[in-house]
Amino acid sequence: MSAGATLPTVAPPGGGQWREALAARGGIVLLASALFVFLTLPLAMILVRSFQDRSGAFAGLANFARYVQTPALAQSTWNTLTFAALATLMVVPLAFVFAYAMQRSCIPLKGLWRSIALLPILAPSLLAALSFIFLFGNQGLFKAALPWLGQTSIYGLPGMVLAMAFAAFPHAVMILLASLSLSDARLYEAADAMGATRLRRFLTITLPGAKYGLISAAMVVFTMAVSEFGIPKVIGGNYPVLAIDIYKQVIGQQNFQMGAVVSLVLLVPAVVAFVVDSVVQHRQKALIGARSVPYAPRPARGRDALLLVFVLVVSAYLLLVIGMAAYGSVVKFWPYNLSLTLDHYRYGFEEAGVEHAYRNSLVMAALCALLGAAVTFAGAYWVEKTRGAEALRPVIRFQAMLPMAVPGMVLGIGYILFFNHPANPLTVLYGTMAILVLIGSIGLANWVQYARTVRGSTLVEKSKEYVQAARVIGVPPWKIMARHVLPNVMGPVLVIATLSLGLAILTEATLSFLGLGVPPTSPSLGTLIRIGNEVLFSGEWWVTVMPGVCLVVLVLAINLLGDWLRDVFNPKLK
Amino acid sequence: MADERSGEALRLEGIGKTFGTFVALEGIDLAIRRGEFVCFLGPSGCGKTTLLRIVAGLERQTSGRVIQNGRDVSALPPAARDYGIVFQSYALFPNLTVAQNVAYGLVSRRRAKAETAARVAELLALVGLPDAGPKYPGQCSGGQQQRVALARALATSPGLLLLDEPLSALDAKVRERLRGEIRALQKRLGVTTIMVTHDQEEALSMADRIVVMNQGRVEQCGSPQEVYERAASPFVATFLGRVNVLPGAALGAGRYRVGEAELVLRADGFAPGDAVRIYLRPEDRHIEGDVAAMPNYLTGQVSRIDYLGTFCLAEVDCPALGQSIAISMSLNQLHDLGVREGEPFGFALRDERVRVFRA
Questions:
Q1: Which segments of chain B belong to CATH 3.40.50.300?
Q2: What was the pLDDT predicted at A6?
Q3: Interface pTM, i.e. ipTM
Q4: Residues of chain A contacting residue B89, judged by C-beta atoms under 8 Å apart
Q5: Angle of CA points B208, B213, B218, to nearest 5°
Q6: I need a labelling partner for A303 at 20 to 30 A (CA). Which of A88, A101, A451, B309 fits?
Q7: Residue in chain B nearest A1 by alpha carbon
Q8: What is the nearest CA distance from A276 to chain B, expressed in angstroms?
């Protein structure tokens, strides 16, 4: 028998069997209903609303007809696609070269560059937009450079694309880092032995190996840009996009049905991108076998020097954007009095309730991450490893994928429509922290990301002989999972857990921004950013920046903690 | 030129390789004749793959020279050397078709398209896969991938073929068949070949010459018959085939004491009283005819019989030696001589075969 052969599942002995089966069935039903309430129903609500008039009566396609007849809205659709396409074209090649430098060269201080590249993930996207205003806005530091760059104003498409490139960069880099990390040194040696040039090696081995990662990264960036709200709001100028239209319709005009229609329109490109990504992922064959030897780059002076320059430029750009926002938050009165002060922070912590907001956000995010991780893992285990209630399983899988395909803005609208509906018994939760935790952990938990990473590393782990040996001896599957598999996949799991903690804070910020979530009496960072946004153009912009900077610091600290935990728990690094 | 006269394809001079403080190879000297099939044989970690990779230029030696066809290639990159290589588990490009894989080295050398296509067809026919061209490696069986890798390595008609454990990932049956095929192909093309393996049977059945390696050194270098029958060291004797080890003492003039028995062997050169180990293969015995009248006659009781297909091993407890000895015999002999577990059994050692080493 070959080593890779599947071994029979060993059932736990005795009467524990039916009890386990019952528990599994109960778990599946619970999971399916939770996802239904916190994901599918809110989304369905959007669909329902798009066919209703203001009073809630059935209106047929009237809303859609009005949408099509409104030239401004059609223009927004085109703008959105242009913006997303440009951002994708800008981010993906840059992220690829960056990831290539990290994985395939011998440049020094890789850990530092990597951390810098991931910084924007922690910042609210509008922070980038604000930075660009500080840099190139009407009173900006480098305003004089604009004509030189062929632009008259930073407001509008150029500023949006630049800010989006900043916000989406880490996401693309993470995906490409992962896809470039899978490499087989023997292929490169074979190519070397057969006299292939560097270019040919790159074209026949490196690029095909990263192909799926590239498509995936492009789809993720595109989806992010399509649903991006903060950046167009702050720096979009007279360049309306769909996300802004939704905000205007829902928050500005309380026109929920038109907001729902626009949400559906916004959903189309996102779903298309998601389907493309899924098909591509599905096609990805196992390029890396158990026998493959990981590629270790050797120093090459010319290549390393070029890549180092590139990495330095990108890192400087990212730091400039973040640093500008941080600088802005300690300047006394932009742009008239540039002396430095911590007054904003002092005021924020002592009077504006930032400290309180901090605590609220932290508690909320921690609850989300904990509950989310627990739900995700238990769910993945129930779905993949138990039997019974077969019909519900694909339903769960499909629902778990929804948050990936649906822009956060659309989901947010769905939540408002659903939980704010007078007939909904869950309305009592509206405007509480509980709803945010439930949404964050069940609805928006980074299901697919978790599942992919865990499944990938679990599959590798499970094919190892000692795990198979444990199965043969008759160790029950959950015990193998807990004792042998989990400790070994702990690294990626913790990384995602900390990332999702950051994500939870940002989710809360988005939802609070839309007005769903913790009541104003118990402020959170999200509410502060919202309040700040409202006063953005009245000169009190720092109210927005300061919580943003606090957020970066907070999430960065959490991520460093995660890295540290990973190093402590990863047996392989010892 | 010197190499033309001697017909020498490759010479390794004082090759050494260290990884940090770990010595992977030390003082390797070796000359390989044109058209020869040489096996580097040894347990895992003995340095055989490292040595192959140094020949390929994929690893740089810490000391010593690699001379190919009279040319010092020690410092040349892989592409500038003349060889084809088959990696352990093949390393075929998964995103290229079989034909593109085979053509890879030809494209690098900028051959004309038509010429390349003809050569690819010729090679695929050579390895018995004439129709596999448009397939992807993932659609081929392990044995087929192996052949594709072989065709790819031979594509540029290299003067040297390097095989890194080429058969280790295959099923026993396929492995056995491919052994014969590779050997036949190598003879037909007359290409100088180095194969790395840890499988002694593979080495014994395929090689013209075996280089037995252990802990970064060459233990013995010789034809399969030489290394098997006249092992130069205890390591070679135990690593190749089965062997009984009898600790004893030399009595001088080819006489040895083992337990209470006194053996007279051809091997000599030990002073009386020297502690020795006597290495005796299961087949180094007489069991038919009037064995009781032969020198070195021993008796004992059969404690166990292991059937191994065409022959079997009988474990014989010899009171005189104070230990048991494994004796091999054919199934016919087993029946003709009436050998059964628990029964007494007598045999005589073949004094000319037995090897003796200082303990």
A1: 2-238
A2: 38
A3: 0.75
A4: 186, 289, 291
A5: 90
A6: A88
A7: B171
A8: 20
A189 CB within 8 Å of a chain B CB: yes
Q: Please indicate whether the domains covering A73-258+294-340 and A342-385+428-574 agree at the CATH topology level.
A: yes
Q: pLDDT tens across A280-335, in order?
A: 766 655 444 445 566 777 777 888 899 999 999 999 988 888 887 777 766 666 55
Chains A and B form CB pairs within 8 A to the count of 67
Q: Identity (one letter) of the amino acid at A202?
A: F
Query: What number does CATH give the domain B242-358?
Result: 2.40.50.100
Chain B nearest-CA distance from A169, in A, is 28
What is the arithmetic mean of pLDDT over A116-134? 74
pLDDT of residue A223: 80
For the question of whether the overall pTM of this predicted structure is more than 0.80, the answer is no
Instruction: Compute the radius of gyration of chain A from its Cα atoms.
Output: 25
Predicted confidence (pLDDT) at residue A538 exceeds the cutoff of 50: no
**Mean pLDDT over each residue of chain A, to the nearest integer:** 71
Which residue type is seen at B147?
R
**Interatomic CA distance for residues A541 and A563, integer angstroms:** 33
* pLDDT tens, position by position, A226-240: 877 778 877 887 888
Q: What is the CATH number of domain A73-258+294-340?
A: 1.10.3720.10
Return d(Cα A146, Cα A126) in angstroms, integer: 21
Residues of B whose CB is below 8 A from A191: 104
Hey, are the CB atoms on A189 and B94 less than 8 Å from each other? no
Is A157 part of the contact surface with chain B (CB cutoff 8 Å)?
no
pLDDT at A89 over 90: yes
Report pLDDT digits (tens) over B49-98.
Answer: 899 999 988 888 888 889 888 888 888 888 888 888 998 877 888 888 89
Q: Do A192 and B95 touch (CB under 8 A)?
A: no
User: Do the beta carbons of residue A499 and residue A122 sit within 8 Å?
Assistant: no
| Chain-chain contact of A191 with B104 (C-beta, under 8 angstroms) | yes
B105 and A194: CB-CB below 8 Å? yes
The torsion defined by the Cα of A188, A193, A197 and A203, in degrees rounded to 10, comes to -40
Contact A194 B156 (CB under 8 A): yes
Instruction: Measure the CA–CA gap between A161 and B151, rounded to whole angstroms.
Output: 51
**Domain-wise residue ranges, chain A:** 73-258+294-340, 342-385+428-574
The answer to whether the CB atoms of A285 and B138 lie below 8 A apart is: yes
* pLDDT-derived band at A355, boundaries 50, 70, 90: low
* Interface residue A203 vs chain B (CB under 8 A): no
Between B58, B94, B104, which is nearest A196 by CB?
Answer: B104
Look at domain B2-238 and name its CATH class. alpha beta
As annotated, the residues of chain B forming the CATH 2.40.50.100 domain(s) are 242-358
Residue of A432, A133, A402 whose CA lies nearest to A275: A402
Tokens of B123: 């090679």
- Neighboring chain B residues of A205 at a CB cutoff of 8 Å: 93
Q: How far is A193 from chain B (nearest CA, A)?
A: 5
Give the sign of the dihedral formed by CA A146, CA A147, CA A151, CA A152.
positive
CA distance A273 to A84: 11
What does residue B195 show for φ and ψ, rounded to 5 degrees?
-120, 135
Nearest Cβ partner of A195 from B58, B79, B89?
A: B79
At A5, is the pLDDT very low, low, confident or very high (cuts 50, 70, 90)? Answer: very low
Higher pLDDT, A441 or A249: A249
Fold of A342-385+428-574: MetI-like fold (1.10.3720)
Cα–Cα distance, A231 to A228 (Å, whole number): 7
pLDDT in tens, A487-516: 666 655 655 565 566 566 666 666 665 665
Are residues A189 and B104, on separate chains, in Cβ contact within 8 Å? Answer: no
Q: Kindly give the parts of chain B with pLDDT less than 70.
A: 1-6
Contact A193 B85 (CB under 8 A): yes
The answer to whether the CB of A552 falls within 8 A of the CB of A323 is no
Q: Do B93 and A197 touch (CB under 8 A)?
A: no
